[in-house]
Amino acid sequence: MSAATNQGKEMSFLGHLEELRWHLIRCTLAIVAMGMVAFLAKSFVFDTLLLGPKNADFPTYQLLCKVATFLGFQDSFCFDELPFKIQSMKVAGQFSAHIWTSITAGFIVAFPYVLYEFWRFISPGLKENERRTSRGFILIASFLFFLGVLFGYYVVTPLSINFLGSYKVSEEVFNQFTLESYIGLVRSATVACGLIFELPIIIYFLTKIGLVTPQFLRKYRKYSLVLVLILSAIITPPDIASQIVVAVPILVLYEISIYISKAVVKKQAKKAKAAHG
After folding, report:
1. pTM score
2. Mean pLDDT throughout 235-250?
3. Which of 77, 147, 206, 226 is an S-S bond match for 212, by CB 3.0 to 4.6 Å?
4. Residue-wise pLDDT tens digits, 26-39
5. Alpha carbons 50 and 183: distance in angstroms, whole number
């Protein structure tokens, strides 16, 4: 009897692994499919999207110029051209950049489907009421991710490129960046911000399983501020203005996460009281 039970558990565990494997395969296929679309749309992905933030007519620079002109210091934010060039230093540099950029674009576009596959894997283990209350998970998580990607692309990326592309230690030294480093900056800024904006969703699930409480989040708020500033320093250039611009929405997300955690705990307490009553 005991052996049969153990064998049943083992089969159940292997069955879960097999199911997880197929979810991962479908996620990979979705990313590859979207990546192939991005690969074929090379001109739009590179000329319009990736290389857009290096041009003076990029919307963020235009907005900063208008604000600076209104405040009377347009010399700092209005320019006709960023003083740097982009070059490829390797034989297969441009092709490699094309491949990895397409994969990254595929992941970003296929992110809602990846969440859907993740949800399909974990939902059978949830109770009916938990499944019902978490129904909007994919929509909200996707919205936050794309909001973070847009923030990274239109705020963090141009601030970083403008600062690092214009920075000089001497007039004798000119900036000429490799294609890999430029794309790496754009990729890390957009994807990192997209994942960071998932913080409320992460806190929601951590609270549901009891690993995080609103008291814990409030108690360590000052430590989280330090972590946010460190994180901002990692994904932005080392100037205070850019770090503050990035830190503010992350801190707002942290405060929202506290209220989400509080709501989850309150709801769990109400259910526990009703069950015992």
Report:
1. 0.82
2. 68
3. 206
4. 999 999 999 999 99
5. 7
pLDDT in tens, 166-191: 878 888 888 888 899 899 889 888 98
Instruction: Name the residue with tokens 């239109």.
Output: 154
Distance, in Å, from the CA atom of 214 to the CA atom of 205, rounded to the nearest integer, reads 13
Q: Look up residue 152 and give its DSSP letter.
A: I
pLDDT for residue 170: 81
Distance CA 258, CA 40 (A): 43
Q: What is the mean pLDDT of residues 259-275?
A: 79
What DSSP assignment string belongs to 245-262?
A: HHHHHHHHHHHHHHHHHH
Instruction: Identify the three-state secondary structure at position 125.
Output: helix
- What the block records as the tokens of 58 is 């990029």
Single-letter amino acid code for the residue at 228: V
- Give CA–CA dist 157/118, Å, rounded: 29
Torsion angle of C-alpha atoms 103, 109, 115, 117, degrees rounded to 10: -70
**Where is 86: in which H helix or E strand?**
strand 84-87
Contact between residue 60 and residue 111 where contact means Cβ atoms under 8 Å apart: no
State the Cα–Cα distance between residues 97 and 36, nearest whole angstrom. Answer: 14
Task: Name the token pair of 18.
Answer: 């097999």
Q: How many helices (H) and strands (E) does the chain have?
A: 13, 2
**51's tokens:** 């290389």
- Asked if 231 and 196 touch (Cβ cutoff 8 Å), the reply is yes
Measured distance CA(160)–CA(185) in Å, rounded:
8
Q: How far apart are CA 168 and CA 52, in angstroms?
A: 22
CA-to-CA distance for 61 and 76, rounded, in angstroms?
11
